[in-house]
Write a structure and sequence with these properties.
This protein has 372 residues and is mainly alpha-helical. Among the domains are: 30 residues; 205 residues, no CATH class. Helix content is 50%, strand content 1%. The protein is built from ten helices and two strands, in the order ααααααααββαα. Strands 1-2 form a two-stranded antiparallel sheet. Strand 1 and strand 2 form a beta hairpin. Helix 4 packs across helix 8. The protein starts with 88 loop residues before the first helix and ends in a 6-residue tail after the last helix. The relative contact order is 0.08.
């Protein structure tokens, strides 16, 4: 069917409905699409790929140019795309002079020193009781003078009890009866110097003699401590004395030794023996009065009941008072014997370590006459 628009004009009834035609050719030829023609010729950025290389047998090795410089390392915080530059020494020095950098370095150094100090104290505390040693060296000048007077003149002293503050002993600076290690250490050094001086007056001084005197005194006090501890262990004697307490009381004999040497320096043998006898009696009296309370305080504790066939011999029924309880008289006797043993050995060691240092005559006679 063909569609003709002019056929509808002039007909009665107005316009008619348009009819659809199936002949496309009657509508005319369509407008042809223009061909694609770019404005500029296509210029690729890469050259066209050539034919692939021929196949070669063997292993392909990458060649490396050793003459080329390696790329600079990126030690900063810049991304890889940005250029990297080495720090200038002048800029680095100016940065270290900034107050905030110095404060950070000082804080880091303090933290590092505190960590090292804590590590040293922790490792040293495994073998040496540092915190306990501080107690024995907590002294002042007033305590040292009063303690020396107490050792030399102990007869007028009345109160020998050690004071306690909440189950811990009071420091020596606040309690005259508390043991300390300052006087024994200073007495040991003074004894070595005085021995060298007296050997020099007798023309027997040599550096080896100073070493012999120091090592002998140290060896004797170590032997003395071992002897006391072994005696307590063998006799099964329990006391409130600690090892450092025994060391402190054993070191007080250097006061007696120094006084005896001074007496021998002034009045030769007669002055030495008179001073030694008096100072030994005073030292023994001081040790008996001081150690008696600490040695005999352990005897007041009740001993555990004996077992017979798995049942306690007493203490389990209200009629246990009629049974004979084990007496602590044997333990008290052992403590008394140990106290006397300590009080006797101190004067003997004082005499043994000082008798060979006293000249036979006074200091004026020990000096030889000048050669003519």
């Amino acid at each position: 069917m063909n569609f003709n628009a002019s056929r509808n004009v002039g007909q009665p009834g107005g316009l008619r409905k348009a009819k659809r035609v199936s002949d496309v050719a009657a509508m005319g030829a369509p407008t042809p699409t223009p061909a694609f023609a770019p404005a500029a010729p296509y210029a690729p950025g890469y050259p066209p790929a050539g034919p692939p290389p021929p196949y070669q047998e063997g292993i392909q090795l990458d060649t490396q140019d050793f003459n080329s410089s390696a790329p600079a390392a990126n030690y900063g915080f810049m991304p890889p795309g940005f250029p990297q530059s080495s720090p200038n020494p002048a800029q680095l020095g100016s940065m270290l002079q900034q107050p905030i950098v110095q404060d950070m370095a000082l804080q880091y150094g303090n933290e590092l020193a505190a960590a090292g100090r804590a590590a040293v104290q922790r490792e040293l505390g495994k073998y040496v009781p540092v915190s306990r040693l501080r107690y024995y060296f907590a002294v002042d000048t007033r305590y040292v003078l009063r303690k020396l007077m107490l050792i030399m003149f102990p007869y007028t002293h009345k109160e020998w009890m050690v004071k306690y503050d909440q189950n811990s002993p009071v420091q020596p600076r606040d309690d005259l009866n508390a043991p300390d290690l300052y006087i024994p250490c200073m007495g040991y050094v003074t004894y070595i110097l005085l021995a060298g001086f007296m050997l020099g007056l007798q023309h027997r001084f040599s550096p080896e003699q100073i070493g012999i005197q120091a090592s002998s005194a140290l060896a004797y006090i170590i032997f003395e401590m071992i002897l006391y501890l072994v005696t307590l262990y063998i006799t099964n004697t329990h006391t409130n004395l600690k090892t450092l307490d025994l060391l402190a009381f054993s070191g007080y004999k250097y006061t007696t030794m120094i006084g005896s040497l001074l007496g021998g320096l002034l009045l030769s043998k007669m002055g030495y023996y008179c001073t030694l006898v008096y100072s030994s009696v005073a030292l023994s009296y001081f040790l008996v009065k001081t150690l008696r309370l600490q040695l005999l305080s352990g005897s007041m504790a009740t001993e555990p009941p004996q077992q017979y066939g798995g049942y306690p011999a007493y203490g389990g029924n209200p009629y246990a008072e009629q049974w004979s309880k084990p007496s602590s008289a044997g333990g008290t006797k052992r403590r008394v014997y140990f106290l006397l043993f300590v009080a006797v050995t101190q004067p003997l060691l004082s005499w043994w370590l000082t008798a060979h240092l006293v000249p036979n005559a006074g200091p004026a006679a020990s000096v030889p006459p000048p050669a003519r």
